[in-house]
C-alpha cells in the first residue's frame, strides 16, 4: 500500500501548492463564496464534500461512456461495426471444456440465481439488522431490472445471429442484463465485504475477486454468442455509474451519520454459520440453474460455418471469384488491408497435405497452452515452429487455417506466414476454393494487439506469394493454373499499422 500513500502525499502537496499560489489567492479574495463552495466540495470532513465530489465524477464519467455507446449504436460507429468480427474471433477460442465452464459462469448472472442471491442476502441482513445494506441491495437490483427492461425496449436491438451462438436467448440484446445485474448485485456485495475486512491485503483481494467475477460473467455472454460486444461494454459502464451512486450514498452516511449499531442477538460464530449456510444454498441454486442449462442442446444450433455454396463452372471461374465478396482481408473495424494473393483449389486435407509436403507447418490455434509456449519461446528465445498468430479477417470471418515456415534462425520472431479462408465457392459443385493472404513476419513488436505480441511484416508481400508458389510447385502436389489481377497496384497498411506494397496479383494453384 506504500505507492498509494506516496501518491496521496503528492496530491496533498500539490493542493497546498495550488492554494498558496498568489493568483489563486487573488481569485479567492475576489470570489469568496464561489471559492468556499469549491473548497467544501474537496474537503474530506465536509458532509457533502470530497466523497460526494468523487462519486459524482465517477458516475458522470461512466454515464457519459454509456450514452456514447448508446449513441454509437444508433450512428453505427466503428466499435459497433466491429461487433460481428469480434464475436467471430471469440468463436475460435471455443472448446468443449471451456464451454462447460462458461455455461456455469453465465448462470451466475441468470435471473433465478441473482434473485435467489438477493433473497438470501436480504435474509442475512435482516438477521444481523443491517438495514442500510438491505435497502441498498434491494434498490440497486429492483430499479436496475426496471432500467434494463426500459433500455431493451427503447433500443430494440436484435441478438447476434444463431450462426455465432451456442445457446438461444429470447428478447432484445442491448444492453446485457447479465452484465448489468452482475455489477448491480455482485458489485455491491463486493463493496460490503470490502468494508467488512480490515486487512488492506484482503481488501485488494476482494476488489480483484469481485471484479474478475463480473468480467467473466460478462465475457461468458460473448463466448456463448448471445450478446454483441457493445451490449456488454455498455452494460458495464452503466453498471459502474449505477453502483457508484449507491456506494457514494453509503460512504457519506457511514462517515457523517452518527449511528448506533443494534445488538443482533447472535454470536460471531453463529453469524458465520448462518452466512455460510445461506451461501451454500445460493451455490446449490447456481448448480441447479447450470444443470438446467446443460439440458438445452446448444450443439443443435445451426453450423457456425458458411452453409450457402456458390457453384462455379470450371470455364472462366476466375472471372467470377469475387462477385459480391471482398478482394482484401480486413481489420477488426472492417477497413481494407492485405489483398488476397494466394488462391487454392482443393479440399482442406489437400491444402494441408500440399503445405506439409512443401515443409510448411500448420499453426496452432490460440489456446492457453499455445500462449504459454509462445511466452516461453519469446522470453528464452527457444524455437516454437507452430506458434499461433493474431487471427486475420476476411468477409468478417477469422482465417480457418494458417501455415508458417521457419527461417534458418528457427526463431519465433521471424517466419514465412499465410492465412487461408474457405470460401463459399465450389468448382463444378465439388472442389472447394480457398483464399489466402501471405506475408513474411520479420520481427515482433513490443506493443501488443489484443494483449498479444504482434509481428511486423516485410512490406514486399508479393515476395511471400512467389515463395509459396515456388515451394508448393517444387513439392509436386499442386499445379499452377494462372495469375489473376485482383487489385490495381496498391500501397496499404495491415491491422497493426505495418505498411505494405503489392502489384495486386494472386496466384491460383490446384491440388493434383
Describe the SSE topology.
Blueprint: H1 2-19, H2 22-30, H3 32-41, H4 50-75, H5 78-81, H6 83-91, H7 96-107, H8 111-127, H9 131-155, H10 177-196, H11 200-223, H12 229-256, H13 268-295, E1 310-312, E2 328-330, E3 336-339, E4 342-345, H14 348-357, E5 361-362, H15 368-380, E6 393-394, E7 397-398, E8 401-406, E9 415-427, E10 431-444, E11 455-457, H16 461-474, E12 478-485, E13 490-493, E14 499-502, E15 505-511
Parallel strand pairs: 1-9, 4-15
Antiparallel strand pairs: 2-3, 4-10, 5-8, 6-7, 8-9, 9-10, 10-11, 12-15, 13-14
Helix pairs in contact: 2-3, 4-12, 7-11, 7-13, 8-9, 8-13, 9-10, 9-12, 10-11, 10-12
Please provide a written account of the structure.
The protein has helices at residues 2-19, 22-30, 32-41, 50-75, 78-81, 83-91, 96-107, 111-127, 131-155, 177-196, 200-223, 229-256, 268-295, 348-357, 368-380, 461-474; strands spanning 310-312, 328-330, 336-339, 342-345, 361-362, 393-394, 397-398, 401-406, 415-427, 431-444, 455-457, 478-485, 490-493, 499-502, 505-511. It folds into 3 domains: 1-29; 31-300; 312-511, no CATH class. The radius of gyration is 29 Å and the shape is elongated. The protein starts with a helix and ends with a strand. By secondary structure, the chain is of the alpha+beta class. It contains 16 helices and 15 strands.
Amino acid at each position: 500500500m506504500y505507492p498509494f500513500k506516496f501518491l496521496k502525499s503528492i496530491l496533498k502537496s500539490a493542493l497546498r501548492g495550488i492554494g498558496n499560489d498568489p493568483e489563486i489567492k487573488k481569485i479567492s479574495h475576489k470570489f469568496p463564496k464561489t471559492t468556499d463552495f469549491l473548497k467544501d466540495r474537496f474537503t474530506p470532513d465536509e458532509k457533502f464534500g470530497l466523497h460526494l465530489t468523487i462519486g459524482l465524477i465517477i458516475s458522470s464519467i461512466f454515464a457519459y461512456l454509456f450514452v456514447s455507446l448508446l449513441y454509437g449504436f444508433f450512428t453505427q460507429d466503428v466499435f459497433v461495426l466491429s461487433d460481428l468480427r469480434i464475436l467471430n474471433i471469440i468463436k475460435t477460442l471455443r472448446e468443449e471444456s471451456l464451454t462447460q465452464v462458461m455455461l456455469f459462469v453465465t448462470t451466475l448472472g441468470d435471473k433465478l440465481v441473482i434473485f435467489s442471491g438477493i433473497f438470501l442476502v436480504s435474509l442475512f441482513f435482516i438477521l444481523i439488522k443491517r438495514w442500510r445494506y438491505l435497502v441498498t441491495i434491494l434498490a440497486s437490483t429492483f430499479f436496475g431490472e426496471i432500467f434494463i427492461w426500459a433500455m431493451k425496449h427503447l433500443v430494440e436491438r436484435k441478438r447476434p445471429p444463431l450462426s455465432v451462438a451456442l445457446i438461444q436467448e429470447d428478447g432484445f440484446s442491448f444492453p446485457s442484463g447479465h452484465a448489468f445485474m452482475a455489477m448491480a448485485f455482485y458489485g455491491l456485495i463486493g463493496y460490503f465485504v470490502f468494508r467488512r475486512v480490515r486487512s488492506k491485503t484482503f481488501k485488494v483481494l476482494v476488489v480483484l475477486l469481485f471484479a474478475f467475477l463480473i468480467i467473466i460473467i460478462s465475457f461468458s455472454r460473448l463466448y456463448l454468442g448471445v450478446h454483441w460486444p457493445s451490449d456488454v461494454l455498455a452494460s458495464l459502464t452503466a453498471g459502474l455509474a449505477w453502483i457508484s451512486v449507491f456506494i457514494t450514498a453509503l460512504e457519506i452516511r457511514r462517515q457523517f451519520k452518527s449511528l448506533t449499531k443494534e445488538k443482533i442477538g447472535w454470536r460471531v460464530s453463529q453469524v458465520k454459520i448462518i452466512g455460510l449456510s445461506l451461501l451454500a444454498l445460493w451455490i446449490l441454486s447456481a448448480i441447479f440453474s447450470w444443470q438446467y442449462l446443460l439440458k438445452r442442446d446448444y450443439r443443435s444450433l445451426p453450423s457456425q460455418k458458411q452453409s450457402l455454396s456458390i457453384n462455379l463452372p470450371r470455364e472462366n471461374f476466375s472471372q467470377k471469384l469475387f462477385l459480391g465478396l471482398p478482394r482484401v482481408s480486413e481489420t477488426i473495424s472492417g477497413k481494407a488491408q492485405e489483398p488476397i494473393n494466394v488462391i487454392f483449389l482443393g479440399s482442406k486435407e489437400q491444402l494441408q497435405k500440399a503445405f506439409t509436403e512443401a515443409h510448411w507447418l500448420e499453426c496452432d490455434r490460440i489456446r492457453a497452452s499455445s500462449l504459454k509456449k509462445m511466452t516461453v519461446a519469446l522470453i528464452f528465445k527457444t524455437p516454437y515452429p507452430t506458434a499461433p498468430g493474431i487471427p486475420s479477417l476476411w468477409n468478417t470471418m477469422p482465417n480457418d487455417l494458417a501455415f508458417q515456415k521457419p527461417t534458418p534462425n528457427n526463431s519465433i520472431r521471424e517466419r514465412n506466414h499465410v492465412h487461408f479462408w474457405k470460401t463459399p465457392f465450389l468448382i463444378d459443385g465439388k472442389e472447394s476454393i480457398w483464399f489466402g493472404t501471405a506475408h513474411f513476419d520479420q520481427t515482433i513488436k513490443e506493443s501488443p494487439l489484443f494483449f498479444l505480441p504482434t509481428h511486423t511484416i516485410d512490406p514486399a508481400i508479393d515476395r511471400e506469394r512467389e515463395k509459396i508458389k515456388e515451394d508448393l510447385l517444387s513439392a509436386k502436389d499442386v499445379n499452377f493454373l494462372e495469375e489473376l489481377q485482383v487489385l490495381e497496384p496498391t500501397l496499404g497498411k495491415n491491422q497493426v499499422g505495418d505498411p505494405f506494397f503489392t502489384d495486386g496479383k494472386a496466384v491460383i494453384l490446384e491440388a493434383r
